[in-house]
């Protein structure tokens, strides 16, 4: 079945997403499921038997479908067929130990007790399986390479450090801690490191895992008395560790403890560790000091929202990858409209391109100019820094000059902190940038203001009520 490159890409991304979210059984089940394409709004899947079909339907399909629909921007139906002779499963069947049946389509037998939870196989077989690296296609997005990453001033340090790590020449950057707002390329850089390492060392054991997945695996290992196996996977069978979204470990004390030892074991033996987070290490709440100090012991590099030229270059790159004809004029127009993050930028391009191709138009067409205007209204949701300052001033009845001043009077200071917090949250501006926008303050002042409001919001309903009122006003000014 013919798939467009957007469908192909979305399908791969949705699989990848499902795999990262699901417990370690993804490969097991998807070794008995095939993908036959997307046709007339229908995702066509084939299962080796009804049991597999029903299990995948209940346990994986909701996540997979939700993600796929999100990426494609349209709803899908799902059509299943059953074929015991399934020839090209989504995941290659696992190589199990000699005691296992050679043909083992790994899903556990259909015993009733298996319906709630897949039965763990014997630790011997698991260990052997764990040492077989999962198929790269599902682990690393083939499009998240260094070649496809556009470098600008917003991300050049993170890019250079990631490249150096991947080339094996940067022991002093161990660990590399990449921080930045959502959709700014952190995961892309991690996958790029993996691709590059694999291109030089095809047998490298690269462990890529989100902190959430690490936590789930850890809990599962504890429950099933498989800690030896868990530790082997993370401490001795790992040549590069990529831990995505480390902020997820906040407040998870036992997992933090385990990760602390994992980190030390790897670090002591010189295994590169790359971490990403939406916050700087020092800003991570409920994270023990000893972990924070480990995180900062190598290089901390941030990615920020890209400037206009970088956004245009990213759009052009994306259009080239997806074979979307995109003129310079439209690229600039779109980049001017969407400035929040790269994910939204790409999403806008893909949606426009899909609409254009469905209606047989090009992106330059006059009708498409109308669509572009609609993108504009959506992105106007992003009110600017000045708007936030204005709304906050009016809410707390202070003046803009107060916000910029050195006035430490309680009410003025609080209004200022709230404005900083909202700007950081909504615009993902960097701390130095915000410092400049608030009367040339030091970035550490902004950092502590944001942290203070964040924590007050959680424990003080009155503060939360203020913030909600301001947010409602901002939302109405976005319409
Ligand atoms: P994060 O992990 O920071 O939330 P991702 O790495 O998932 O963000 O990036 C979101 C999307 O934006 C991905 O499709 C990624 O390829 C793209 N992207 C982000 N930054 C860049 C860049 N500098 N060049 C090209 N694509 C980028
Ligand atoms: Mg990410």
List keywords for this structure.
alpha/beta, GMP Synthetase, Chain A, domain 3, Rossmann fold, 4 domains, 5-stranded parallel β-sheet, 3-stranded mixed β-sheet, 22 helices, 8 strands, globular, binds adenosine-5'-diphosphate, binds magnesium ion
Per-chain topology:
Elements: H1 5-21, H2 26-30, E1 33-39, E2 42-47, H3 50-59, H4 61-72, E3 77-82, H5 123-130, H6 136-139, H7 156-166, E4 176-180, H8 186-200, E5 206-210, H9 211-223, H10 227-236, E6 240-244, H11 253-268, E7 273-277, H12 289-295, E8 299-303, H13 308-321, H14 328-337, H15 342-358, H16 366-379, H17 385-396, H18 400-404, H19 410-427, H20 431-437, H21 443-459, H22 461-478
Parallel strand pairs: 2-3, 4-7, 4-8, 5-6, 6-7
Antiparallel strand pairs: 1-2
Helix pairs in contact: 1-4, 7-8, 10-11, 13-14, 13-15, 14-16, 17-19, 17-22, 19-21, 20-21, 21-22
Adenosine-5'-diphosphate is lined by residues 144, 148-150, 155, 180, 182-188, 314, 317, 342-343, 346.
Under CATH, the topology of the largest domain can be stated as Rossmann fold
Secondary structure class reads: alpha/beta
How would you describe the shape?
A: globular
As for the number of domains, it is 4
CATH H-level superfamily title of the largest domain: P-loop containing nucleotide triphosphate hydrolases
Ligands in the model, by name, code or SMILES, are: adenosine-5'-diphosphate, magnesium ion
The total of beta strands comes to 8
């Amino acid at each position: 079945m013919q798939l467009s490159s957007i469908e192909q890409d979305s399908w791969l991304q949705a699989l990848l997403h499902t795999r990262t979210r699901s417990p370690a059984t993804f490969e097991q089940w998807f070794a008995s499921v095939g993908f036959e394409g997307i046709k007339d709004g229908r995702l066509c899947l084939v299962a080796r038997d009804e049991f597999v079909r029903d299990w995948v339907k209940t346990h994986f399909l909701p996540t997979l479908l939700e993600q796929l629909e999100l990426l494609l921007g349209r709803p899908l139906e799902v059509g299943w067929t059953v074929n015991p002779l399934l020839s090209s499963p989504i995941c290659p069947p696992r190589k199990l130990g000699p005691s296992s049946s050679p043909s083992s389509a790994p899903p556990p037998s259909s015993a009733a007790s298996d319906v709630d939870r897949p039965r763990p196989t014997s630790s011997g077989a698991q260990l052997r399986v764990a040492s077989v690296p999962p198929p790269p296609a599902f682990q690393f997005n083939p499009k998240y390479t260094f070649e496809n990453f556009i470098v600008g001033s917003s991300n050049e340090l993170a890019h250079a450090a990631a490249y150096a790590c991947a080339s094996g020449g940067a022991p002093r950057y161990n660990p590399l801690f990449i921080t930045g707002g959502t959709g700014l390329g952190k995961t892309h850089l991690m996958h790029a490191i993996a691709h590059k390492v694999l291109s030089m060392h095809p047998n490298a054991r690269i462990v890529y895992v989100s902190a959430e997945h690490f936590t789930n695996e850890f809990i599962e290992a504890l429950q099933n008395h498989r800690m030896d196996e868990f530790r082997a996977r993370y401490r001795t069978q790992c040549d590069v560790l990529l831990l995505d979204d480390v902020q997820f470990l906040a407040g998870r004390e036992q997992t933090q403890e385990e990760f602390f030892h994992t980190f030390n074991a790897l670090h002591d033996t010189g295994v590169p560790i790359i971490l990403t987070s939406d916050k700087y290490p020092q800003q991570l709440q409920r994270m023990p000091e000893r972990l924070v100090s480990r995180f900062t012991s190598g290089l901390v590099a941030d990615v920020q929202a890209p400037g206009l030229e970088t956004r245009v270059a990213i759009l052009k790159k994306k259009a080239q990858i997806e074979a979307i004809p995109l003129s310079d004029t439209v690229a600039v127009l779109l980049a001017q409209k969407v400035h929040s993050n790269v994910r939204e930028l790409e999403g806008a391009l893909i949606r426009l391109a899909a609409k254009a191709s469905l209606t047989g138009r090009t992106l330059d067409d006059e009708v498409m100019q109308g669509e572009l205007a609609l993108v504009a209204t959506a992105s106007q949701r992003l009110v600017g820094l000045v708007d936030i300052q204005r709304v906050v001033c009016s809410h707390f009845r202070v003046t803009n000059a107060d916000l910029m001043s050195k006035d430490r009077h309680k009410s003025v200071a609080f209004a200022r902190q709230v404005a900083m917090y909202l700007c950081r949250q909504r615009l993902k501006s960097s701390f130095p940038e915000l410092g400049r926008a608030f009367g040339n303050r030091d970035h550490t002042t902004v950092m502590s203001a944001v942290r203070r409001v964040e924590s007050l919001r959680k424990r003080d309903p009155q503060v939360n009520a203020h913030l909600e009122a301001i947010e409602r006003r901002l939302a109405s000014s976005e319409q």
